[in-house]
UniProtKB/TrEMBL annotation:
GO terms for biological process, alphabetical: response to antibiotic
PROSITE patterns listed in its UniProt record: ABC_TM2
Segments forming domain ABC transmembrane type-2: 18-243
PANTHER family listed in its UniProt record: MEMBRANE COMPONENT OF ABC TRANSPORTER YHHJ-RELATED, TRANSPORT PERMEASE PROTEIN
Transmembrane segments annotated in the record for this chain: 21-42, 54-74, 95-119, 131-154, 161-180, 214-240
Annotated GO MF terms: ABC-type transporter activity
Species for this entry: Streptacidiphilus jiangxiensis
Lipid bilayer topology: Multi-pass membrane protein
Name of the protein this chain belongs to: Transport permease protein
Keyword Protein biosynthesis: no
Species lineage: Bacteria, Bacillati, Actinomycetota, Actinomycetes, Kitasatosporales
Highest taxon in the source lineage: Bacteria
Length: 245
């Protein structure tokens, strides 16, 4: 891995994003818009917003980052950009880490905006440390980015990349504990949910809104989310193809 090449890749991706304001708006504003809709959809039942607001503060950015990253990476391959880049002295990990750094900065800004809106403006009740809520929200965005980079290797078209969302994310959404506690699920479903990273992201958010302080269980949840992010990046580098056949 070469830090100079990694930073050069990150700079190139950020410049591309700057020239595409619609993508930037989707990345930064769509999660905020969805949280506002959630707030006012349950305006007469604030307890529902307090229970769902924190988990969805992580889930919405994760979904948006997954979609944008998967499509952007696939476009690089189908247009031949990736093939040209890899003919230069640029390793796969340099390329993936450059993407991760660029989209990671976007995830940080995205998380700060969504956090400030949810807690500062919409008044989400938080028992635990606010900084932990922000950290988990940003970690969820990074996870979505890493998963998007990984699954892009298995898609041949942008339409196929979008199809990975219901196949890859919706099962996690159903089993993460958002709709029903995981310990009330059938044993085999509970066992599956135990290996899904989104389960730990939702658990972390629920701990922050219900428990004071930064507990060891919360640290484990956050570590699992970050560990899955690194694993997805490593798998993405291993499966990255120069071009789509």
């Amino acid at each position: 891995m070469n830090p100079h090449r990694t930073l050069a890749t990150a700079r190139r991706v950020l410049l591309q994003l700057r020239s595409d304001p619609r993508t930037v708006a989707m990345l930064l504003l769509v999660p905020c818009l969805l949280i506002v809709l959630l707030k006012y959809a349950f305006d007469g039942r604030p307890e529902v917003f307090d229970s769902l607001g924190a988990p969805l503060l992580g889930i919405f950015p994760m979904i948006v980052m997954f979609l944008v990253t998967a499509v952007a990476t696939l476009r690089e391959r189908t247009t031949g950009t990736l093939e040209r880049l890899l003919t230069m002295p640029l390793g796969r990990m340099d390329l993936l880490l450059g993407y991760a750094l660029a989209f990671g900065l976007v995830a940080l800004v995205q998380g700060v905006l969504a956090f400030g809106l949810t807690v500062g403006v919409l008044g989400l009740s938080v028992t635990g440390p606010s900084w932990a809520l922000l950290a988990v929200a940003v970690a969820d965005g990074l996870l979505g980015m890493a998963l998007g980079l990984f699954v892009s290797a298995f898609a041949a078209t942008e339409f196929q990349a979008v199809q990975f969302m219901p196949a890859f994310l919706l099962p996690q959404l159903l089993l993460c504990g958002l709709f029903t506690p995981r310990d009330t699920m059938a044993d085999w479903l509970h066992a599956i949910s135990d290996v899904l990273p989104l389960s730990y992201a939702v658990d972390a958010m629920n701990r922050i809104t219900s428990q004071s302080g930064f507990s060891g269980a919360l640290a484990v949840d956050l570590a699992v989310v970050l560990g899955c992010t690194l694993l997805a990046l490593a798998l993405g580098a291993a499966t990255l193809r120069r071009r789509t056949a």
